[in-house]
Amino acid sequence: MRLKIGRLRQGLALMESLFLLMLVAAPWLAEARGQPFLLDLATRLAILAMAAASLNLILGIGGLVSFGHAAFLGIGAYAVAIPAWHALYGGGDWLASESGLFHLMLATLAGGLFALSTGLIALRTHGVHFLMITMAFGQMIFWLIASQETYGGDDGLTIDVRSTLPGFNLDDPIQMHMVAMAGLILALLVFLLVRVSPFGLALAGAQANAPRMRALGFPVFRLRLAAYVLAGILASWAGVLMANFTAYVSPAMTDWTRSGELMFMVILGGAGRILGPLVGAAVFVLLEEALSSLTPYWHLPFGLLLMAVALAQAGAFSGLIAGRPSSRKERHA
Amino acid sequence: MDAGLLAAQVVNGLQLGVLLFLVAAGLTLVFGILDFVNLAHGAWYMLGAFVSASLTAAIGIWPLAVLLTLPLAAATGWLAERLVARPLYGRSPLAQVLATFGLMLVIEALAMLVWGAEGRTVLLPAWLTGQLHLGSSIVLPVYRLVIIGTGLMVASGLFFLIHHTRFGMQVRAAAANRAMAEALGLDTTRLHAAIFALGATLAALAGALVAPITEASLAMGLEIIIIAFVVIIIGGLGSLKGAFVAALLIGMIDTFGRAYLDDIFRALMPLELAETAAPAVSAMSIYILMALVLAFRPQGLFPPRSRGGHP
């Protein structure tokens, strides 16, 4: 039985790797099939998978159930939209810029600071408490953005000029896809590096038994804070990509239901598995595409699926698909 | 400061506060006993608004429509407990939020099927639409006072129920130490269902009460749930008293922030900065309050004393 599960996992990992390759090759595949919208789908998938991978870093390795991750996407997206808007319409001298590197820097700064300040407060709690607090801070970003009439408020902002990157033209769908894939692969590499590093091992140890790790002298709080900030910055970068991809940003990007969708991707793919977010994002994007073309009520089957996944795997911290062995539930963190 | 405006803002703040309490009460009770997070709780707020709107349109008598909404909410709450919540008790919070997130999407989609994407307005009977004149400058809308009165009555009833009845004693026993309560012969399964149904009823009542002011809309449940979370985080997870204090506090701060922050900021800083900062701070005020409270008291203002029974 053990052997079979091992085989199953190997097969799954192989399929996931093939899928990643397919995603890289999406421009050619889309052209060969004569369906350019497939490329759009693949780019969106890559960006969502990148965001999910950053959530996987804290949720999968550290067991930190953050329900406000979409806020970082919004922060990154507006780190593109606001400077671009100023560059076009004037005002905000130091902010006005069309440079992609500046946008990334701003996203890093804003996302990192937001993660640091909210992490300092939220990480003092754990479990459900942590979940609710991250959710509330996420919604705070929603209302903050919605309150800024200058930048479109509730209606959002159209990005007229995409970020300029040296060597890349993001107006070209194929180059946009390449940059999005680079982002995804970067996030996956960071995840892998963290997971095998002493830092990641200590983080995973703190998930399994925080008091013991503290007794061993590990600064659990600081480790978690570092992971939280790292994940926040990565998600902000995904937001930068998302803004360039859709050329439109709005507070709705940071709605807590978006955070829920990211969590769904991580859980479905199996929390803690490196390519899990890819599978989760693929299932989500395909479901959304297929169901929402069939019916405006696509949340009905999607919600039922969510419930089925949760009820089926109730108790296990691992994913529906061959997750890692579940860790003990955190009660004394 | 204008006395009339001030009085009106106090009434608005109180009204928001009692409505928040009605929604948060169910959340905090369920959490106190079961360690269970119900993201779908806001759905009953939305359902209460829509069902009462439809019933008002059908029978024409608003108070009766609201009263008829309540048993429906209790029944659906009970059903949700049986089908979705019960298998998840004691499981990881992750499974709980995922399932109740799904439940919320399902209820919202069903509501969209039944009522459509547009909002529904609710017409109040004439005797509730008047104004109450106090002195020369203070004019208060009667209906908002009715909401406050109803909310406070229900809140006192709830406190009486929890602190002075046999049922309440069982609830408190289960919250303090579930294993012990079960060992003493308490049927916690029925208790859980009852608490869930009660919470759903209270949320639906809040939704039915607010609908004539804001109209019933699909998104209202999504919006209220986060504020209700902030309420119970500030009050202390599982504490009814904490939820009450925090709900009124948040109602007041949110209302006053929206009403006065603009003027205060304009007096303190250059106009251009004030125009950006005032709406930002007033939009974030309750979350800033939450951050401040948590910075000093990570467990909230009134954390329940005993949380045994969950080894």
Q: How would you characterize this protein structure?
A:
The complex is a heterodimer of chains A (333) and B (311). Chain A is mainly alpha-helical and 333 residues long. Chain A has a domain at 36-257. Helices cover 70% and strands 2% of the residues of chain A. Chain A has helices at residues 2-24, 26-33, 37-61, 70-89, 100-122, 127-146, 173-196, 198-208, 210-215, 220-246, 256-269, 276-294, 299-312, and strands spanning 157-158, 164-165, 168-169, 248-249. A two-stranded antiparallel ribbon of chain A has the order 1-4. Chain A is globular and about 55 Å long. Chain A starts with a helix and ends in a 21-residue tail after the last helix. Residues 315-333 of chain A have low confidence and may be disordered. In chain B, 76% of the residues lie in helices and 3% in strands. In chain B, a hairpin with a 3-residue loop joins strand 1 and strand 2. The termini of chain B are far apart. Chain B has helices at residues 3-34, 41-59, 62-85, 93-115, 142-164, 166-176, 178-183, 188-214, 220-235, 240-268, 271-296, and strands at 131-134, 138-141. Chain B has a domain at 3-218.
Q: Which descriptors apply to this entry?
A:
heterodimer; A: 333 residues; mainly alpha; two-stranded antiparallel sheet; 70% helix; disordered C terminus; B: mainly alpha; 2 strands
Write the layout of secondary structure elements.
The complex is a heterodimer of chains A (333) and B (311).
Chain A: H1 2-24, H2 26-33, H3 37-61, H4 70-89, H5 100-122, H6 127-146, E1 157-158, E2 164-165, E3 168-169, H7 173-196, H8 198-208, H9 210-215, H10 220-246, E4 248-249, H11 256-269, H12 276-294, H13 299-312
Antiparallel strand pairs in A: 1-4, 2-3
Chain B: H1 3-34, H2 41-59, H3 62-85, H4 93-115, E1 131-134, E2 138-141, H5 142-164, H6 166-176, H7 178-183, H8 188-214, H9 220-235, H10 240-268, H11 271-296
Antiparallel strand pairs in B: 1-2
